[in-house]
Amino acid sequence: MPIGIGCVVKATAGRDADGFYVVCGIENGFVLLADGKRRKLEKPKKKNVKHVRKTNMQLDLNVITTDKGLRRALSPLNVNEGGNQLV
């Protein structure tokens, strides 16, 4: 299944590698990513599709309209085994 808007992805390259993001747009082989903290919904990061890996999680961006809601939805993914925040 291809990457679509609302898919949760993991960055595999760049300074944001290993971080989880939600796809909030697609344009010409690039995805627009937001995490609600470093990359807000108003100014998403443009990243090559080759540099992200899709997860099984899907978010409804019609329901999550704020950066706070996005951070809350992604927070379980950004915690490691010791309970410390990764992002």
TrEMBL record:
CDD domains named in the record: KOW_RPL14
SUPFAM superfamilies: Translation proteins SH3-like domain (SSF50104)
Taxonomy, superkingdom: Bacteria
GO cellular component, as recorded: ribonucleoprotein complex; ribosome
Keyword entries, A-Z: Ribonucleoprotein, Ribosomal protein
Name of the protein this chain belongs to: KOW domain-containing RNA-binding protein
